[in-house]
Amino acid sequence: VQLQASGGGLVQAGGSLRLSCAASGGIFSISDMAWYRQAPGKQRELVATIHGSGSTDYADSVKGRFTISRDNAKNTVYLQMNSLKAEDTAVYYCYADIYRLWGQGTKVTVSS
Q1: Among candidates 50, 58, 55, which has minimal Cα distance to 98?
Q2: What confidence tens digit (pLDDT) does each residue in 83-97 have?
């Protein structure tokens, strides 16, 4: 059972990125899935959650800019990030609640 995150990179402020989290080896379609992030010197924080029902929750800091979605046929969860700000710079981690499993992280750097 593993999660593989990808899609990070360097982008200018105002730009967009889409992160992907590919799950394998388990049953993820019924699991709550989430994206967290950790900026340098800060604690890891919850960014967005998509529940097994498909409902979503977002941190106030990303509401209206980020969208979490899932494709159960592909066992993949996405995080579409628009209107990126310098303060979005962090390592982003995906998380599968059903297995309490973390992905390896993908780095996002937003230049101002």
Answers
A1: 50
A2: 999 999 999 999 999
